[in-house]
Amino acid sequence: MSDFPDPGTDALVHSARVTDHISRAIADAGGWISFERYMDLALHAPALGYYAAGAAKFGADGDFVTAPEISFLFGRTLAAQAGEVMAASQASLLEFGAGSGRLAADLLSALGGNCQEYLILETSPDLRERQARTLAAAGHAGRVRWLDALPARFSGCIIANEVLDAMPVQLIERRGGRWIERGVRADGGKGFAWADGPEVDRVPPTLDAAEFPAGYQTEINRRAPAWIDSLGRALTHGAALIIDYGFAANEYYHPQRSTGTLMCHTRHRAHADPFFAPGLTDITAHLDFTSLADAARSAGLDVLGYATQANFLINCGITDLLARTPAADAAAYLPLANQANRLLSPAEMGELFKVLVLGRGFEHALVGFARGDRRHALLPCALA
What we know:
By secondary structure, the protein is an alpha/beta fold. Helices cover 35% and strands 24% of the residues.
């Protein structure tokens, strides 16, 4: 892709190392690996993968911008829901994959002493260092403890913001009335190429129940339900807030969504080539929130709410927070208003991003779902 900025010599050398690592994995497997395996290596191979190595990923100097990077309004609004959960369970908060640390800093600023314990589960040493710097700059040095794994038991609030979309996905394609797994082979020293794999015998119910044309391609995230199951084993009392882009199953696996949702980002440019600059390119897929809700019920968790990010943030008071800055002070107000628009607008993050809350031990409605709760869209009857 010649129109992309030159990443620099060091970055290209790193990408060559990642390419070599994946090529050896393909050779060891007999010449073919599933796309799920390729995505896992490209993103998470120790010291090499996109999220495991040291390049900037979040914000203006990275490859994409998340909601906490857009505005402090996101984290400080989210604190209303987190605070409600913590008040009803325990004053502990656990964040999965904290990115740059911006969300943690904003939540701690908003929650103050109401958050007695802030934990971050982060496997990347590079990101841990960046999170520590961000927290120290915000005056929260020493207020966070990092974990290597989910605690065996946890009571409180769990937050996963744009975490599950980075989980490797199985890629499948409709061929002759069957589902075929798509995979990756080495391309004669030129990088990687697509290659067919075996027939897939288990697919989500929607893919079994509807007719799809030949060549229809989509993804299955098999790791996200397992992640939900681990939450079910650990969460004794409290709730998990999952914030990410995606759809209910009947929207995700729609016959018109014929090329799936796989998306790549390199230097703030979206493209569809997961083989471009391995190790320097983010690879994501949207979430099937129905499968997450089903996994939650199987794990003994309650589905407490499901809404668009816009409805959730409005319910949690983002407009009230914005109003604290006088509109007459244009220099201060207009940038905040533009940030709020990016978080709420249907053309930006407001509709595509959803908030799913799973919990145990709650008997009352949560503030973030006072209006616009779409849990009915996740019920099995909605798949027909």
